[in-house]
Amino acid sequence: MSRIHTVVIGAGPAGLAVSRCLTEAGRDHVVLERGRLAERWRSARWDSLHLLTPNWMTRLPGGGYQGDDPDGFMAAGELVRVLEGYARSIAAPVHEQTTVISVSVAGGRFRVVTDQGTWEAANVVVATGHCGHQRVPAAARQLSPRLHQLTSDRYRNPDQVPDGGVLVVGAAATGTQLAEELASAGRDVVLAAGSHTRMPRHYRGADIFRWLDRLGTLDDRIDDHPDPAAARRSPSIQLVGGRDLDLDRCRRAGVQLAGRLVHAHRTTVVLSSDLPAHVAASERRMHRTLDAIDDHIRRSGGALAAPPADRPAPVIVGATPDRIDLADRGITSVLWATGFGRSYPWLRVPVLDGQGEIRHRGGVTPVPGLYVVGLRYLRHRNSNFIDGVGRDARFVVDHLTNRSPTHEELAA
Which residues are paired to 269 by β-bridges? Predict the structure, then answer.
């Protein structure tokens, strides 16, 4: 058994950011990764994926994007190379192909058992990220076995999907991208959409994330929200790198819009009639943000330099079906883009709530020495963005270094 100050679980952006901060603090540590460094960006993303955030937002403690296209949107493979370079630059002690079997507490220290050995540590930082496993509603089990079902983390490209139409369930960033891609490949696509967040890619001469950064929107604190749970459940923005993407663009690409999937039996799906209400609510939220940008431009004296306001036209929903017989429609596949949950079967420490999520306050769990980084809205709106994990990593490392002595002090 090896003794060490801190074990970090997960070698994605969050885990690497924590590693950099621990090195700065002079704390010995290891970063354990079940696959290769940044494994999910290698193996759980579709082929055409580009980051939703511009390259300049790929900022990590002491490093990040160094290319010549700061306003571009890198592909997943490019991000892997950036993270590999970052890990080398900070000499991150990453142990790849190391699967954590259990984390438990004994004698006031953590025992981390893996398939490559065991560590005893004063601290453990869980940095496995927000996108743990695809959530699939119970309705999936009621569908006919003749229908091909797959989740967005297993989707790669249209050629992978059997011939025939596709029902895409979920209209956040992932669902809209995949629905448009499938329709552009000539597939008959129905998109079952509920609550969503629409936003233009560009507005008044700048990328929407440039404006959100200037407004301080990405710095919003979860503690300032009247309903933190609702804030964490809110859907991701309907965006794709470099251009607009929303329900209207999907419709113009040939996608049939429908309401939420509420029930399924064999080849029949029942759909809600509330899509117009969700669209109206999304439009109101978008215009509130654009109003804030306009106000910022006026207050900063940039009205003359900024292009005039050119807001997106309203989404035209049209008639939506209340049920579809998928067999009659020729739909042979269902693609679930219904968000992610997290699972910690190896975490044998009493910190999980009734939904299996880690209980924490800003990344600090009720168990001294156990921390979490990389979750959505952990402390700020951008906590699960590459651009946000660094700030949370610094907070967590400051907390654990103030809590526990160094390895050398423990051994003295």
Answer: 264, 324
